[in-house]
Structure formats: structure tokens, C-alpha cells
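Action item from last week, closing it out:
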Amino acid sequence: MSREDTATSPESRSETAAPEVSLAVRPPLSDEELNALFAAAWPQHAPTRFGPVLARSLAWIAARDAAGRLVGYVNVAGDGGLHAFVLDTTVHPEAQRRGLGRSLVRAAAQEARARGAQWLHVDYEAEWEPFYASCGFRDTAAGLMALA
């Protein structure tokens, strides 16, 4: 996706991520399809309402297969300034190991940049370090406080 695409129609633009998978920025997504994707990818997922999350998001990227099924998603939150945050990178198990996750994160980075962010952050558990390194993130010191 190019900056020119962002200026013309960020809500409807799409790009091919992998064979027969297309990416779209900020497309309409239902709780039902997001919960189905998350349940398939994350066994401990509990159904949730995504509307409040999407309403506050800087952007999100969705991946659909040739049949129109949601097979990937990543959210981009922003601080209203120079920082954006990658959240909830999720790929359906049937679509994993094909580069779709990296395509989602790269599209999220491009969209965050187009919307004015200069820094993109991501938190992850140690097992995900190779994946995020392959997306271009470098390891940094950070802090985390559990609130629940």
C-alpha cells in the first residue's frame, strides 16, 4: 500500500497479502466474525464486543480469503501523537505459516505511518520474538504492570 492509496480511500483500499488473500484497512467487521477468528486462533478466547475497541482504534487491517472469510486481523491503537501500538495480531490456523501475519503487521505499520505515527510499539511474550523480529521490530527494554 502506498501513501497515495491512503490519501484516496483508506477505508476501502486492499492489497494481496498471500495467494487468494486480500487485506483491507478499516473494513466493517462484526463481533461474530472476529470472535470466530479469535476462538480458532486463541483457544482461551472468551467472546467479546469489539465495537468499543474498533471505535477507539487508529486503524485495523483485516485479511479475507477468496471466499470472503475473515482469516487475519491486526489492530493499531494510537496515543493521539507520535506513538502507535500493534495489538491482537491474529491469523486463522488454516492460514498460518504463509506470511500473512507479517503482511498484516507490515500493513499496520504502513497505515500507522500514514496517519502520523513515528514510532510503532508491540508487546509480546518471548515465544513471539522471532515473528516480530521478522516484521522489523527490534528488542527494547519495556515495563509491564498487570492491572487485573
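Closing note: The chain has a mean pLDDT of 88.
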